[in-house]
Automatic annotation (TrEMBL):
Origin organism lineage: Bacteria, Pseudomonadati, Pseudomonadota, Alphaproteobacteria, Hyphomicrobiales
Similarity field: Belongs to the D-isomer specific 2-hydroxyacid dehydrogenase family.
This protein's name: D-3-phosphoglycerate dehydrogenase
Keywords: Amino-acid biosynthesis, NAD, Oxidoreductase, Serine biosynthesis
A GO biological process held by the record: L-serine biosynthetic process
């Protein structure tokens, strides 16, 4: 196997380069590479490691024909077009914890900077003014600290603030009462937080719901003299409205690390005496940068070399130990899906996938994605294991997943049941000890067949003479039969045949099979 190739296109700690090399990945370190050059060379790489400067757009991804994984050394992936990457089957990973402490510390540092006007006092002192009477700060002890978004970073800020003897209140719809209690935080509604907080710090991602969460209207509901810190994302606060509130004296100070437009060369907040600004330095410590660089290099290498998936935004996690166990079942799930997809003529309403026995202990989410990809691929273009669940959801196809203990003869079984407007059809498969996937049931009828590149699937009435007539139709057309698997539910009942043939089967031959008395369906399947 040739070594996978990774490009580092942002200023990552060089520790990442070493990790890639030590793991056997070819790496090119090109921090700050020009956008046009990146477009020209991205087609040579299997992996891309970035921070926030590289903009991974749909246009860039069109050129990224080999790319399998994008790793963000940091948290926010707002510089990556995740839906476009997903549509191309590219895994997008981040490193959700590596810079959290550092960013939380920056929020606390900015809170102190505001409380004691440190940047302005520094500038004045170094200018030789010694303005001892100009700077009158406020104590943090006993003040109410309002945290909007109490996830990884917000929680660390909360713990630090509790240590500073502040009264901490948090607005986060997903914060459980137990977690709030453990953190020593009072969980409140946004209105309550706005009305009570002396300091407000924001720690949510930028989403439709959080955009301008501190709007002009909400800023007007804050306590007079409030101080606001934003170390999360530009756009959470309406910068124009905040400037007006600073000018009127309603807001006493604002410390911002992130801005609506970055790099922020100009901004409505700039120039106000009570504003402290840093250039998106939240994650900028030696420790955090080493953490995220090492993590992203390990995660990308693990994926490219061993199929392990960690911290992916668009796919379930799979460990390096799980990957080899999962691989034959991924193939089985995809082929079962493909079998059903090739027989589906439209009106697909739902797919139910049941995992029985040892396979039920594996990461079945990944298997379900594979099955849905197999199912949709014959119907839609450009579906892959990463994009399939989202595409199915967009089309209103319900996906159900069930796991249960083994009940029958097999150690592991996957049953895929498709419901369309007109019928319900199940296909059952397993993986034999040789690692090969097998079909062991169709529509409740037991069979035993391998998936072959070219197959004919026939469903018919169990009547004498079918096999002879079938062989004659194929023989007359010069088509060689390689293997023949039959099954029936009862003598004279419903039967199925799975026939491996050499080469493509012309429609006229399938029509000839269909014309055999008792044949209900005859389809070519390819795998
Ligand atoms: N300035 C910098 O350099 C850095 C900025 N960040 C940013 O900090 C932010 C927070 O990061 P983490 O704490 O790691 O994320 P996280 O995902 O752990 O926490 C985010 C929290 O926001 C909450 N939330 C979501 N929607 C909300 C809403 N409508 N109202 C209130 N709360 C809501 C979530 O429930 C979650 O608890 C992210 O935007 C990240 O990109 C992260 C690292 C460095
Ligand atoms: O990489 C950086 O400096 C930015 C970090 C950040 O904003 C994040 O991790 O979300």
């Amino acid at each position: 196997m040739t070594a996978p190739k990774v490009l580092i296109s942002d200023k990552l700690s060089e520790a990442a380069v070493q990790i890639f090399r030590d793991s056997g990945v070819d790496v090119d370190f090109r921090p700050g590479i020009d956008k046009d050059e990146l477009e020209q060379i991205i087609g040579n790489y299997d992996g891309l490691a970035i921070r926030s400067a590289t903009k991974v757009t749909a246009k860039l991804l069109e050129k990224a024909t080999r790319l399998k994984v994008i790793g963000r050394a940091g948290i926010g992936v707002d510089n990556v077009d995740v839906p476009a990457a997903t549509a191309r089957g590219i895994i997008v990973m981040n490193t959700p914890f590596g810079n959290s402490i550092t960013t939380a510390e920056h929020a606390i540092a900015l809170t102190f900077a505001l409380a004691r006007e440190i940047p302005a006092a520094d500038a004045s002192t170094q200018a030789g003014k010694w303005e001892k009477n100009r700077f009158m700060g406020v104590e943090l002890t006993g003040k109410t600290f309002g945290i909007i978004g109490c996830g990884n970073i917000g929680s660390i800020v909360a713990e630090r603030a509790v240590g500073l003897r502040m009264k901490v209140i948090a607005y986060d719809p997903f914060l459980s009462p137990e977690r709030a209690r453990d953190l020593g935080v009072e969980k409140v509604e946004l209105e309550d937080l706005l009305a009570r907080a002396d300091f407000i710090t924001l720690h949510t991602p930028l989403t439709e719901k959080t955009k301008n969460i501190l709007s002009a209207e909400n800023l007007a509901k804050t306590k007079k003299g409030v101080r606001i810190v934003n170390c999360a994302r530009g756009g959470l606060v309406d910068e124009v409205a905040l400037r007006a509130a600073l000018d009127s004296g309603h807001v006493a100070g604002a410390a911002f690390d992130v801005f609506t437009v970055e790099p922020a060369k100009e901004n409505p907040l700039f120039g106000h005496p009570n504003v402290v600004a840093t250039p998106h330095l939240g994650a900028a410590t030696t420790e955090a940068q080493e953490n995220v660089a090492l993590q992203v290099a390990e995660q990308i290498s693990d994926y490219l070399l061993r199929g392990a998936i960690t911290n992916a935004i668009n796919f379930p996690s799979i460990t390096a130990e799980e990957a080899p166990k999962l691989r034959p079942f991924v193939e089985l799930a995809e082929k079962l899906g493909s079998f059903a997809g090739q027989l589906t003529e439209g009106g697909l309403k739902s797919v139910r996938i049941t995992y029985e026995g040892s396979v039920a202990q594996l990461k079945v989410k990944a298997l379900t994605s594979a099955a849905v990809a197999g199912l949709l691929r014959p119907i839609l273009q450009d579906v892959n294991v990463v994009s399939a669940p989202a595409i199915a959801r967009e089309r209103g196809i319900v996906i159900e997943e069930t796991t249960r203990e083994a009940e029958g003869d097999y150690d592991a079984l996957i049953t895929l049941t498709v419901t369309t407007d007109d019928y319900e059809r199940s296909i059952v498969g397993t993986v034999f000890a040789d690692g090969k996937p097998r079909i062991v049931g169709i529509k409740g009828i037991k069979v035993d067949a391998e998936f072959a590149p070219s197959m004919i699937y026939v469903s018919n009435e169990d009547k004498p003479g079918f096999i002879g007539r079938f062989a004659t139709v194929l023989g007359d057309a010069g088509i060689n039969i390689a293997t023949f698997a039959l099954g029936r539910d009862a003598e004279g009942g419903s039967a199925v045949a799975l026939v491996q043939v050499d080469g493509k089967v012309p429609q006229a031959v399938l029509d000839g099979v269909h014309a055999i008395p008792g044949v209900k369906h005859a389809h070519q399947l390819t795998f």
